[in-house]
Write a structure and sequence with these properties.
Length: about 450
Amino acid sequence: MAHHDAIVALATATGNGAIAVIRVSGADAIAIVNKVFNGKDLSHQQSHTIHFGTIRDGDDVLDEVLVSVFVGPNSYTGENVVELSTHNSRYIIERVIHLLIRGGARAAQPGEFTLRAFLNGKMDLSQAEAVADLIASNSAASHLVAMQQMRGGFSSILKELREQLIHFASLIELELDFSEEDVEFANREQLKSLVVEIRAVIGKLVSSFEQGNVLKNGVPVVIAGKPNVGKSTLLNTLLNEERAIVSDIAGTTRDTIEDEININGITFRFIDTAGIRDTQDIIEAKGVARTREKMRQARLIIYLADPQQDDIDEVRAQIKEVAQLGIPYVVVVNKTDLLTQAHRDTLAIIEPLFISAKSNVGVEELKEELLRKVNLHNLNGDDVLVTNVRHVEALQKTNESLRKVLDGIDNPITSDFLALDIRQALHHLGEITGSVSTDDLLDNIFSKFCIGK
């Protein structure tokens, strides 16, 4: 049930800046602001208009402001909404918010404006969740995915799937009303074809989670190799800052170091690790163990070798270890400026990229190779990717319920059990968008069929 009391909160981030926006939403939002606003009478203004004036607390003028008026239901929350653009002073912000609370509003809870937008039907639950993803997006790719979901791309697919299932569920429910007459309204072969088709669509959505999650949270890339091959130097070069300690002493990096950069709109989270080698040093040994654990968790591995110190057979053995993880990897030979042609010929067997992390040679080519390996650079606004764990779990539960429907068709069960499995699938799909399957089902039955009794 929607709430109607007025809520208020700062809608912009705190900190240095010229303007702050204070948002008020609720049935009395316009009236509450109007009591402290010295300018036009806001109660007589059209929706989506902006007005200049002052905010006053008795005789005190707190600030000159611009007030934006949005009359419900044509607003973000579906209620009356007023946004006050004040100067970004903590003192002003606190005074204005306290003034509005004294006037009848209450402090909003975290996410309550978007919650009200959902409760008032302005967006479904998956779109509401995408608002948070959009705010948190820090790359072109994560922004694109969040925008696609917030604008209803994911929701429209789910809506279509649910409508098709509801149609058959309605027919099967109708069969239950005529159970004594032994009639069959829902063609089982058509239902089977539909379920197989829906399961294929859901399967693709579930499979997209790996890519969607990477786009949302960044591509974890482990930089691995023997000690002192230049892993920390490469990390510093990629980040364009002295993030990791660089030393000629082998084993300097005892733990993992993480940071991220943006390459062509994709966020890569680089992880510099302890060198892979057998060691008697207890602390370094723990670092090597963490390296291997990070490698297993990575989406991509950069294996870095130094031709000046690494034995080619040992390098090949370590590359084989990396390959066995089943994770995409790039073999990189560092310190290319020190290589002779003989060195290059010897190293050709491992098919590496040649770079010099210290001199920044070949680093751009490495970035291009990283993009190719993760295969994320061809994303477009029409791609529907699942980025939320909750959605994936609901889709998997839906697929399991639909599998039971198929089993019930192949090994005939009564209409009531078949209807139960379909309702369960509808329930799990509805969990994603926040819709209520039972009401949808009843509405569909009475709107499409004249039962006559």
